[in-house]
Amino acid sequence: MQPTPRIWLGDDGIMRIEFPQDYQFTLKDVQELNRRHREIRSERGPLLVYAMSVAEAEHEAKQFASSDDAVAVVNAMAILVKSVFTRALAEIFMKFHKPPYPTRIFTSEADALAWLEPFCDRLGENDSGSGESA
User: Fold this and answer.
1) Domain count, the chain
2) Which residues constitute the domain of residue 59?
3) Which of 4, 23, 57, 104 could form a disulfide with 19 if both were Cys (CB 3.0 to 4.6 A apart)?
4) pTM for the full predicted model
């Protein structure tokens, strides 16, 4: 059994999910994270995903990230990556699963947080956007 991802709400209003080293996430994992996210905050808001070392993601898990259940609590997502491999996984996710909220890939946590900050002012609003890389 692999370690559990950490999920928390920062003082800045940004929800965070940090995946353990070489994490391989499944649909069940993503559904559980969504459940835990809703326990912490049920309104829509920005999400920072620390995916520095995600090794693999099931197709169904990536689909869930664009589902109505995910959209109900996310108005923007920044994905923090450190390797070319993880960036490629994130870009494939954005290309083929097209999250219905603004999504960008970052290599700098400070840049990701700066990009997410305006979305804190729009908690609960319906935003639309497309994925991009920074």
Assistant:
1) 1
2) 6-123
3) 23
4) 0.83
